[in-house]
Each structure stands twice: as C-alpha cells, then as structure tokens.
Amino acid sequence: MSYANKGDQDENQQNDTGELVRSEREILFQAFNWESQKHDWWSNLEKKVPDIAKSGFTSAWLPPATHSLSPEGYLPQNLYSLNSSYGSEHLLRALLQKMKQHNVRPMADIVINHRVGTTQGHGGTYNRYDGIPLSWDEHAVTSCTGGLGSKSTGDNFHGVPNIDHSQDFVRKDIIAWLQWLRHNVGFQDFRFDFARGYSTKYVKEYIEGAKPLFSVGECWDSCNYNGSSLDYNQVDVNHGFSVDFVLKSTSFDRMQGAMKTFAMDEISVILEWPATFPSDGEALGVRHPTNSTMIYLQHYDQSYTLAMKFSEIRLQIKPNFSSPVEIFIININNIKRNKF
Questions:
Q1: In a 10 Å sphere around its CB, with 0-12 CB exposed, 13-18 middle and 19+ buried, how is residue 151 labelled?
Q2: Is 193 known to be catalytic?
Q3: pTM greater than 0.90 (yes/no)
Q4: Radius of gyration over alpha carbons of the chain, in Å?
Q5: DSSP assignment, residue 196?
Q6: Helix, coil or strand: residue 108
Q7: Residue 18, Cβ neighbours under 10 Å: how many?
C-alpha cells in the first residue's frame, strides 16, 4: 500500500492539527521555484502528485495563487482572483483536488504584508483598491509606506504599499479571505510570506480565524554577497536572527498549542535561503530529525529525483524529534558552521 492510500486513521489525522505534529512525520515539499510560472505550472504539477505522495510528502507549498502584478506572485492586487501566471482557477482547483485524493495537503502562500493598489490616492501613490474585491482606501496602508493608516508593526517591504494590520476592517477582510481559501478553494496549510512585516499577534489571529492544519512563516534576513553573487556561506547572517525570531515570537510547543500561536521550527526558517544552494538545502532535509522541507530546485529532473529519493530514505529511517544526530564530517573550507 502506498503512502497516498493511508486509510481512515490517517484521514482523521489530516484533519487534526495536534495529531499532525504528534505523528513526527511531516515533510513539506516546496513545489515550485522562481521560474515555475513559465512552465504551465498547475498542469505540470498535477502530473507529479502521485509521485509526491508516494515519496511520503505530507504537505506541498504552492506559489501564490492569486492575481499579481509580478509573474512570481509576490505583488498581489486582486486577492479573490485565482487566475495567475501559474495557470487558471480551473487548473488550480483540479490540482488541489488531485492532492486531496492523494492525501497531500496543499499549502497556500499567504502574501498579506503588502498589496499593490489600483488607484492613486493620498500623496499621489497607488494606495487605494477601487474596483476590485477588498476595495480598501488609504487607511488600509501603513503611514510609513504612503498611506493614512498607523505605523507598521514590523519591518517595511519597500516599494509597495504595506497593509496596516492594526485596522479592524482589514483583519476582518483578511480572515474572511483566508477562510475562503481554506474551505472553498481547498487549501489546508498556510505559509505566511514576509512574516517580519507585521506583528505575530495578527498572524495568531489569522490562524485562529481560518484554522489551517499546519502553518509556517518566512523569516527572511539579509544575505551575504560576494561581489554581485550570493555567498555560499549564509549561515552566519541568517542563523542567529532566525533562532532569535523563533524564540521570541513563536511557540515550539506545537503539540500542545496545535498551531494556535505562530509556530515555526528552525528548519522551516533556514530553508528559505538554501534554495540557492542545492547540495546543502537537500542534505538538510534528510539529516535533520524534525519536520523537514524539501525544495523544488531549478534543475527539474535532477532535483526532483533527488528530493523524492531523500524523502524515501526518511520514510525508511523514520526519524523523529528525539532521534540523535551524529555529525561525521564538517568541511570548514566550504562553509563555516555555527555551533548549535
């Protein structure tokens, strides 16, 4: 029997957030890369769902599914339009249905730190959303990014209006939208983009309002560069902040909290940046005995095969939160490792 056909017990587990993390077998698959929108992505990915399920992946992180001014999906405008550069709403729903059939939970990429306006408003900037659902005015935009709202409760994402989450009407609308994604569209898990941009208390409110089964958040920090290219040593610049953010802003007690607080584990945070570094990112997914993330890299055939193989190895070994880790070798000439 394959992992895709797991019976009534696992079907119940799929709907029990606490049981998901208690099972200690969660493996999140990043099911896209920065250029996936060029390749008829929803249709392309639907064909791979059986293999993804067979390899033991429990959740697949999809790119932003809503209308966006950037083809990658990270400059959203009409949040209720599911026609994107990755494919049509019809193709998306077909993909989600296929994932449901194979017990792979679809994870929505929730981009709610910022939103591109449709109309010029206060200060001559595009900070109004006339003519589309969630037709907010300038009071939905933070004062530090050209709006008439309050000051941001987190870091600014420059160059685009940042949403003011302190506004009651904004949070009410966002919760309704998240519930729509969850119960109408069919997403089960959430990934919160640019989580540093707004207070974690609002993420907690969104999670409690929409009740995703599993949630992670992006904690993107600055990167080391070697000239104009990314440096292969990104540990020093990211690791310290990521752990500090997790300790101060999140709950590690996911079993009892059942994602009622904004919960992330270290591997979920760190694996935001190794997507540029295939060998390290893929190896981390195998050797870390907690919930893991596998990354869909740019070289499709090679990375897809490796990711499937790594996940199959995890299924054979069955590591969990209490599994010991033994480091056999560290090549300090390639990358400087922090002490954990």
A1: exposed
A2: yes
A3: no
A4: 20
A5: G
A6: strand
A7: 16
Q: What is the mean pLDDT of residues 280-294?
A: 39
CB atoms under 10 Å from CB of 262, counted, come to 24
How far, rounded to the nearest angstrom, does the alpha carbon of residue 12 sit from its chain's CA centroid?
A: 24
User: Distance from first CA to last CA of the chain, Å, rounded?
Assistant: 39
Active-site pick, 189, 193, 265, 272: 193
Indicate the angle between helix axes 300-317 and 278-287, nearest 10 degrees: 20
- How many whole angstroms separate alpha carbon 222 and alpha carbon 318? 34
DSSP code of residue 114: B
Token pair in block for residue 12: 């119940």
Q: Which amino acid is at 125?
A: T
Rounded Cα gap, residues 176 and 186, in angstroms: 14
Of 260, 245, 322, which is closest to residue 290 (Cα–Cα)?
322
What is 314-328 written as a DSSP string? HHHH---TT------
Q: Is the pLDDT of residue 51 over 80?
A: yes
Residue 218 annotated among the catalytic residues of the structure: yes
71 secondary structure, DSSP code? T
Tokens of residue 256, six digits: 């009892």
Give buried/exposed letters for 195-207 (b at 16+ CB in 10 A, else e).
bbbbbbebbbbbb
Catalytic-labelled residue, pool 46, 218, 272, 282: 218
User: CB neighbours of 237 closer than 8 A, spacing ≥ 6?
Assistant: 221, 222, 223, 224
Structure tokens at 313: 């190895």
Instruction: List, for residues 213-254, the tens digit of each pLDDT value.
Output: 988 888 766 666 677 665 656 555 544 444 343 333 333 333
- 73: tokens are 């999906």
